[in-house]
Amino acid sequence: MPVVRDLRVLLQLRDFRRLLAVRLLSQTADGVYQIALATYVVFSPEKQASPAAIASAMAVLLLPYSLLGPFAGVLLDRWRRRQVLLHGNLLRAVLATGTAALIVGGAPDWLFYASALSVTAVNRFVLAGFSAALPRVVGPERLVMANSLSPTAGTLAATAGGGLAFAIRLAAPEGAASDAWAVLLGATLYLCAGLFSLRIPIGLLGPDAPATRTRTRTALAATTRGLADGLRHLAERRIAAEALAVMTLMRFCYGALTVTVLMLCRYAWSGDGSEGLTLLGYAVAASGAGFFAAAVITPWAVSRLGRMGWMAVCAGVAAVLEPALGLPFEPVPMLIAAFVLGLVTQGTKIATDTVVQTSVDDVFRGRVFSLYDVLFNVAFVGAAAVASLMLPPDGRSAALIVMVAVLYAAVTVALTGFGPRRA
Q: 81, 332, 338, 412: which could join 315 in a potential S-S bond, CB 3.0 to 4.6 Å?
């Protein structure tokens, strides 16, 4: 099979294997940490989570960094990317350990969210660093396949990490201690990722021209100028801007449906928190299977349909199947929908990553991927906010399902309008 052959070629590249190993460890830790936080916020018996509470938690964790993210991108283009992976993971190990201590100690919610926000903020640097570094370890002819394998493998690793957190939560006695143990496991994996990054040569991942040390005021002015340069560069690469816009809308739809599934698992499909947590685990696994399917299918689909054509197919499939499977609000159809949405969302992301990497110059790549990451966060937070206004307590909202289907259909129409011109 061509996919197996290409995977074998990629895995023969030593530097790619090392970067992938760091990513897998790091994103496994992400999965453990994020699911541990989700179960603590949503499924703790003492907390009565609502759509508004979930939206507020997402805003606290993601929105502040999103407002500052473009500035972080300029820093990412000035720092050695290997050092970002090293120090970022080590710092997250320390911060995650602090989060575990706050959970056990029953700290106020604002202090808990501040700790979680710190881990999430560092995470944005690390993930953007992985994407910006990938073209440095594979040739351009293998970039589509690398974008299929690396981010999707990372997502699957995060799913596996989430499974570990679920297992700890279900096996351990109910209470804050089980969530704290899961967070500590995440901290340990962050530490392993940081130490493993030492196997990558310090200058391999770029950028080629590291910035010299400057005063804070000078660096801030340079950051502002660099951000403006990055935005101008993106405006000159219209296909990259269009791909980012499409991915942002797809991410919004995915976020709205994520909150819907959380509420259905918590209240509509279960009589207690343990049963709902199990159903959520199934939904995460189904979505992860969709991510894996996207990694296998996307290179073949892009070779035949083009990047924009494949994105149009993904949006069109979601526009048809999402309401058909979601409107019954039953567990089995919704789990199938989770698989489909995992496939189309990840398939679109793989294509978008490749468009950005191949159409943006290396010197601007870090700040553009940071902007990409910001759009991801803002779209997800915005989706949670909209869902909090539309969802009833049990998560059954036909209006929200129809709205998401209309957005998918609009994306399909827009892509088919310019896809043939940019195949």
A: 412
